[in-house]
Amino acid sequence: MHASERLIITCGGTGGHFYPGLALARRMMERGGNVLLLLSGVNSANQQQIAATFDIPVKVLPSMPSPGRSPIRWLRFFRGLWGGFLQSCREMKEFGPRAVLGMGSFASLPVILAARRCHIPIYLHDGNARIGRANRFLSSYAKFLGTAFPAVNGQCVSCPCEATGMPLRPELLRTAELKSSEAVVRLNELYGSSLEPDRTTVLIFGGSQGAQRINEVVPVALRALDPAAKLQVIHLTGAHKFEAVQAAYAHVAYPALILPGCDHMELAYSASSLVISRSGGSTLAELALFGKGAVLIPYPYAAENHQSDNAAVFADVGGAVLLNQQDCSPERIGELIRDVLEHPDVWLVRSARMLSMAKPQASDTLLDRIFSEEKV
């Protein structure tokens, strides 16, 4: 790829849209191309700082709240849409991209409309098995839509659609084959914990904010298990739930590393034999990359219940157990942890099936698709 290859990536809103876009931008620069991120949403300032640590150029667009029933919200929506459209047109004329890539959500609407106005080819990516409303709408303007997983509603889009995988940050890709024992040693060094390399490690997390149900149920389940079991736990509680979860582990018999969050997820994944988590798109792509059998508890209030669709993809191939939140009880969690201890070979098969779903070249696959088409 030459420096003349230029791409605008529009992403914003939640980390589920931003971080795959950032991973693509980093890979674009590694390949020698030029990239510009156009961000919008309430997290734009923080996301701009994160991108700056990788020398990724960023422009922040005017805020564009989602429309609602209130006339004031509609006014703010159209004002943000118009301001974002005008700024995007200026950025495109100045930057001269060969293509524009939208990472989902209606935050990308002004950029996609500007690309259409400027006659710049449009591409889309969706990080879930169920293609979201925004991408379904915007697909009528796009040449291609790549998805993280096989789409359950691909018939609803108006452009060619293919599972290209989820772009993941290079740090994860470089450490996916780290040995469990090495990861445990590194975690102990970093956090002063006392994890043991020969124990079965269960990793529990529910995203950056934590998951209340998982945080409440898992410690109760662990207290009911055999105290002599060769078991240990890494539990990431979420930023505001640490103290309550830490207190709940006071009577758990196993070594435990309890953290609000972890900046070294590659170590946590590598150390684990079982993962209990929500089923967001990035989480599942990372579990597949590291080949980790999982108990997936979809967030029941996710838009269009897309986390259940994500989890079903991996449950259907035998890599994970799908556990709906209403069935997430201490008794059921305890049964599943005992199953890992008593039937490790079964869970090794699950891990292999998760690994079979990995697409570590996702960023290159999508970039190749974009630039090979634009050279035609």
Note the overall shape: elongated
* Mean pLDDT metric: 93
Number of strands: 13
Unreliable stretches:
none
Could you say what the CATH topology of the largest domain is called?
Answer: Rossmann fold
Total domains: 2
Element order: H for helix, E for strand: EHEHEHEHEHEEHHEHEHEHEHEHEHHH
Please identify, by name, the CATH architecture of the largest domain: 3-Layer(aba) Sandwich
**Can you identify the CATH superfamily of the largest domain?**
Glycogen Phosphorylase B
What topology, given as strand order, has the largest sheet? 3-2-1-4-5-6-7
* Main beta sheet strand tally, sense and closure: 7 strands, parallel
| CATH level 1 name of the largest domain | Alpha Beta
Radius of gyration: 22 Å
Strand content: 15-25%
Structural class: alpha/beta
Overview of the molecule:
With 376 residues, this protein is of the alpha/beta class. The protein has two domains: 6-167 and 360-375, Glycogen Phosphorylase B (Rossmann fold), CATH 3.40.50; 171-355, Rossmann fold, CATH 3.40.50. The protein has helices at residues 15-30, 44-52, 71-95, 109-117, 133-138, 170-174, 180-191, 212-223, 242-248, 265-271, 281-290, 306-316, 330-342, 344-355, 362-375, and strands at 6-12, 34-40, 58-60, 99-102, 122-126, 144-147, 161-163, 200-205, 231-236, 256-259, 274-277, 294-296, 320-322. The strands form two sheets. It has a seven-stranded parallel sheet with strand order 3-2-1-4-5-6-7, with helices on both faces. A six-stranded parallel sheet has the order 10-9-8-11-12-13, with helices on both faces. The radius of gyration is 22 Å and the shape is elongated. The chain starts with 5 loop residues before the first strand and ends with a helix. The model has no long low-confidence stretch (mean pLDDT 93).
